[in-house]
Design goal:
- This protein is mostly helical.
- It has two domains: 213 residues, Serine Threonine Protein Phosphatase 5, Tetratricopeptide repeat; 192 residues, Serine Threonine Protein Phosphatase 5, Tetratricopeptide repeat (Alpha Horseshoe).
- 47% of the residues lie in helices and 3% in strands.
- It contains 20 helices and four strands.
- The strands form two sheets. A two-stranded antiparallel sheet has the order 1-3. The chain has a two-stranded antiparallel sheet with strand order 2-4.
- Helix 8 packs antiparallel against helix 9.
- It starts with a helix and ends in a 15-residue tail after the last helix.
- 48% of the residues are buried.
C-alpha cells in the first residue's frame, strides 16, 4: 500500500511531542531497548542517506528511458498501457514522490543534528544532497512542499512552494553549504561517513557548483544571463572535473539487496542470472548510434544473444509495440556493461560526463570565458572515459571526426552551438540520466526527433511535460494539492517555456 510521507510521519511526531511533555513523570516507563534520540548522531544517518540519494538517481526511471528513446520493453512483454499511451494519472509511478521525500527526511535530520553538534562538513553534505533531490522533485512535479516540509507539528499538511521559489532557495542552500565546507575543520572524515568523496571538501564544493550550474541551465530560457550566480561558481573553483563523478560506495557486496543499485537492477543477480529481462535498447537510439558510427553502442548495450540477423547484433525494439517474437528478449540488446559493470561499482549521483556537458553549454552561451570547442570536445571525451572504452582518447578523436559530432558543423550562432552540444549530451547520457534528457527535451526540444509511442491507443497524446501528484497526496494534503490548479500531463514546469 502506498502511503504519503506526511501521513506516515505525523502520528510519530505527535506521539513524540506528547511523550516529551510527560517525560519527568513517566521516565520509569521508558523502553530500555529503544535507542534514545540523543544517541542517533548525524554521522550515523548520513551514510545511509547518501546511499539512498544515489539509489534515487537510478531507481524507477525506466519509464522515462522509454519515453526518451533510450530503452523500450522487450518484445516478450506487453507494453505498460498507461505509460505507452502517455495517459498518466495520479497512480503512475506514485512511489517516486514518497521515495524521494523519505530520503530528504533523513537528510533533513542529518543536517539538523550536524548543525547542533557543529559538524559543519556533515551538515554541508546533507545540504548539497537535499538541493540535488529537491531540484529533481521540481523537475518531475513542479510546485512541491519545501518551506514547510517535515514540520509535522506546525504544518502537518505542508503548503506547496512555487517551483521558481524552490529553485531560488536551493541556490541559497548551496551557497550556505559551500561556506560551511570552506570553514569546515580539516579533521579527516571517516570514509564510512562520507561515502562519496571521503573527506575531500573541495570535491563537495565543486559538486555544489555543478548543481548550481544545473539549476541555471534549467532556467536558461527565462533567465539568460545569471551573472551573479555564475560569478560564485567561478570564485568557488568551478564544476566537477574529469573523473570527479559524485558516486556513493559504502562497500557493496555480491549478495541480495547489497549490490550497487544500478547493477542490482540491470546487471546480474548474485547467482549470476540476468537481473533485467524487461528493458531493451530502443530501436531509435540503436539506429542513431549506427548512423553516427558511435563506438559507445557496445558499452551502452549488449549484443543480442540470438539476433534475427547474425550480422546485425545490436537490435532495438519499437516503443509501444505489441509483443513480437522478432523482438523478444534474446533477439534484442540488453543494458550494456559500460553501465552495469560489476556488483561493487560506485553508484553515480552526478557524473563527470554531465558536469562537463553543463560546462560546455554554459561556455557556448557566453557564461564562462573559455574555448567552446575545447569544452565540448572535453565533454565528449569524458563520456568515453567514463564508459571505459578500450581507447577513450582514440575513440573520442575518431568519433569527433564524424559529421554529427564534428564541431565544424556546430554552426555560428549561440543557439546552434547550444543545440549541437545538447544533442551530443543526449547521446552521452544513454541509460545514465533520462531525467536530464527529458528536462533538455522540455527546455529546448532536443532531440527534435524523439519517437512517440506506436501504441494505437495513444491517439494524439504526446510525451508528458510532468508527472501528476500521487494519489496519496490528494488524499492527505488535498487542499494544498488543489491549490495548484488543474494539473494535467501537459501542465508545464515553470522553466518550460
Amino acid at each position: 500500500m502506498k502511503t504519503s510521507l506526511y501521513k506516515l510521519m505525523l502520528p510519530v511526531a505527535v506521539l513524540s511531542a506528547s511523550l516529551t511533555g510527560c517525560k519527568k513523570t513517566l521516565d520509569i516507563n521508558q523502553n530500555p531497548n529503544q535507542v534514545p534520540e540523543s544517541a542517533i548522531k548525524a554521522e550515523l544517518i548520513i551514510p545511509s542517506a547518501l546511499l539512498e540519494t544515489s539509489r534515487q538517481a537510478v531507481a524507477n526511471y525506466g519509464w522515462l528511458a522509454n519515453w526518451m528513446g533510450y530503452w523500450s520493453p522487450s518484445g516478450s512483454y506487453n507494453p505498460n498501457t498507461e505509460e505507452s499511451t502517455y495517459n498518466i494519472t495520479s497512480s503512475f509511478v506514485e512511489n517516486k514522490w514518497p521515495a524521494i521525500y523519505n530520503v530528504l527526511f533523513d537528510l533533513h535530520n542529518a543536517e539538523k543534528k550536524a548543525a547542533g553538534a557543529k559538524q559543519t562538513y556533515i551538515q554541508a553534505m546533507a545540504m548539497v544532497m537535499s538541493a540535488y533531490l529537491y531540484q529533481n522533485l521540481v523537475d518531475l512535479y513542479g510546485n512541491v512542499p519545501y518551506s514547510e516540509a517535515f514540520q509535522f507539528i506546525e504544518h502537518p499538511t505542508p503548503k506547496y512552494d512555487k517551483g521558481e521559489d524552490v529553485y531560488a532557495a536551493l541556490h541559497k542552500k548551496l551557497d550556505d553549504a559551500v561556506a560551511l565546507l570552506k570553514a569546515a575543520s580539516p579533521t579527516t572524515i571517516d570514509g564510512k561517513v562520507d561515502i562519496v568523496y571521503h573527506g575531500e571538501a573541495e570535491s563537495w564544493i565543486r559538486l555544489a557548483n555543478t548543481l548550481k550550474l544545473r539549476l541555471l541551465l534549467r532556467t536558461s530560457e527565462i533567465t539568460p544571463n545569471p551573472t551573479a550566480e555564475l560569478a560564485k561558481i567561478t570564485a568557488n573553483g568551478g564544476v566537477l572535473g574529469s573523473e570527479e563523478s559524485a558516486s556513493a560506495n559504502p562497500g557493496f557486496a555480491n549478495d541480495n539487496n547489497k549490490q550497487s543499485p544500478f547493477f542490482g537492477l540491470y546487471g546480474l543477480t548474485p547467482s549470476g542470472n540476468q537481473a533485467n529481462e524487461y528493458f531493451r535498447a530502443n530501436a531509435y537510439i540503436i539506429q542513431k548510434m549506427k548512423d553516427g558510427a558511435d563506438p559507445r553502442i557496445g558499452y551502452f548495450f549488449k549484443p543480442a544473444a540470438n539476433p534475427t540477423n547474425p550480422a546485425d547484433r545490436y537490435v532495438g525494439t519499437v516503443y509501444g509495440r505489441d509483443p513480437n517474437t522478432l523482438f523478444n528478449g534474446d533477439r534484442t540488446s540488453n543494458i550494456g556493461t559500460g553501465l552495469a559493470r560489476k556488483f561493487d561499482q560506485p553508484q553515480w549521483i552526478i557524473t563527470s560526463v554531465e558536469a562537463q556537458f553543463f560546462y560546455a553549454e554554459a561556455v557556448a552561451r557566453g557564461w564562462f570565458a573559455d574555448n567552446v570547442k575545447d569544452a565540448y570536445e572535453n565533454a565528449v571525451y569524458e563520456s568515453f572515459l567514463w564508459l571505459g572504452t578500450s581507447d577513450p582518447e582514440g575513440d573520442a578523436i575518431d568519433y569527433l571526426a564524424t559529421p554529427g559530432a564534428n564541431w565544424a558543423n556546430a554552426g555560428a550562432t549561440v543557439e546552434s552551438k547550444v543545440n549541437f552540444i545538447v544533442k551530443q549530451k543526449y547521446m552521452a547520457l544513454v541509460g545514465i540520466n533520462p531525467l536530464e534528457a527529458w528536462s533538455d527535451y522540455r527546455r529546448l526540444g532536443i532531440p527534435t526527433d524523439v519517437p512517440l509511442s506506436v501504441n494505437p491507443a495513444r491517439g494524439s497524446r504526446v510525451i508528458p511535460a510532468r508527472l501528476i501528484y500521487p494519489a496519496a497526496e490528494y488524499a492527505v494534503n488535498g487542499a494544498n494539492v488543489a491549490a495548484q490548479g488543474n494539473i494535467t500531463p501537459n501542465s508545464k514546469i515553470f522553466w518550460d517555456k
